User: Which sequence fits this backbone?
């Protein structure tokens, strides 16, 4: 490319070389250079020539493409089903305490002892098959739809992403998930509350519910369940998202750090318990009403009757078992979800 002045002068005496040096398309004009001139130039200095060919761009294949909506929902459902398999016994204890003053008086330890003693160890997993179906529908949507809902609410940059917008996005995702999962929630609650050594089947429970209450029985407590899901998921995702931002800011840990995710999930679990306990109590009472009786007409009526007949603190009955369930559930669920997102090439929440 760079030729000495002597080489240029010496070569320019040739008409062919003159044509090469002045032609705007040297990639074509080079064919007219006499071989002896070319050899002389080549022997004095290496000549690198570009014949207007470019190597095709290298495409990075190490990073996976960001998964779509169905993949996000699938990852959330997988994380939820794995988690509930371990946490379900706590849910059984919580449900028994909420529906029975007798179990409430026994406390967590007494309830576990009584259930295991009279019904067997497997009674702690009553209704787990209904719980799997519930998590695969309800939780997969409320977790998997959170980020799409954030975008829909205008959370596109850190500057315009506020706590209220995060709460609204979590609430919207929770409401949609609750509509899909309510039938399985009703079945799960009834199966967990069933006393006796026999383990009720999901099919038998569904048939009995359909026989006595019709299709509406599967949506009993839908109003309180949607409210609970909105408060729960709004609190959970907004607190987790915001807490992790503070943890990253003040500790210097990356968002992908398991420590940052653990601290944020534990904090979210505590705040969830504070806000959700009253709605969880009402939902449990509505869903567990006898098939042949209607003790409460709706969520509002249930709230009023509980406060009037049992006192306002009854709404937080079972706080410890609820927190005992929420803390590990939220922590395991969110950490598994975050790890699955990372494996699929998505950035951390």
Assistant:
């Amino acid at each position: 490319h760079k030729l000495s002045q002597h080489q240029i002068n010496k070569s320019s005496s040739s008409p062919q070389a003159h044509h090469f040096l002045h032609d705007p398309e040297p990639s074509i004009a080079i064919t007219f250079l006499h071989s002896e001139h070319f050899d002389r130039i080549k022997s004095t200095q290496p000549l690198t020539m570009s014949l207007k060919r470019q190597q095709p761009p290298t495409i990075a294949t190490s990073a996976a493409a960001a998964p779509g909506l169905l993949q996000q929902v699938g990852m959330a459902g997988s994380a939820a089903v794995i988690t509930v398999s371990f946490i379900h016994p706590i849910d059984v204890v919580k449900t028994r305490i909420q529906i029975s003053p007798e179990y409430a008086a026994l406390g967590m330890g007494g309830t576990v002892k009584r259930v295991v003693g009279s019904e067997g160890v497997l009674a702690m997993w009553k209704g787990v098959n209904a719980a799997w179906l519930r998590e695969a529908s309800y939780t997969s949507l409320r977790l998997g739809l959170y980020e799409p809902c954030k975008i829909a609410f205008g959370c596109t940059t850190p500057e315009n992403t506020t706590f209220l917008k995060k709460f609204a996005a979590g609430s919207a995702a929770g409401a949609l998930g609750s509509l899909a999962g309510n039938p399985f929630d009703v079945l799960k609650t009834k199966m967990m509350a069933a006393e006796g050594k026999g383990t009720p089947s999901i099919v038998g429970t569904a048939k009995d519910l359909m026989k006595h209450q019709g299709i509406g029985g599967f949506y009993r407590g839908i109003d309180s369940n949607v409210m609970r899901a909105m408060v729960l998921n709004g609190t959970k995702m907004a607190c987790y998202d915001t807490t992790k931002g503070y943890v990253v800011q003040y500790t210097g840990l990356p968002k992908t750090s398991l420590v940052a995710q653990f601290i944020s999930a534990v904090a979210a679990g505590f705040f969830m318990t504070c806000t959700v306990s009253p709605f969880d109590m009402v939902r449990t009472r509505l869903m567990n009403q006898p098939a042949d009786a209607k003790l409460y007409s709706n969520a509002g009526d249930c709230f009023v009757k509980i406060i009037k007949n049992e006192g306002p603190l009854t709404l937080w009955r079972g706080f410890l078992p609820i927190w005992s369930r929420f803390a590990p559930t939220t922590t395991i669920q969110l950490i598994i979800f975050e790890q699955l997102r990372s494996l699929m090439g998505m950035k951390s929440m």
Summary: Residues 70 and 189 are 28 Å apart (CA to CA). The two ends are 52 Å apart (CA to CA). The chain has 14 helices and no strands. The longest helix spans residues 69-99.
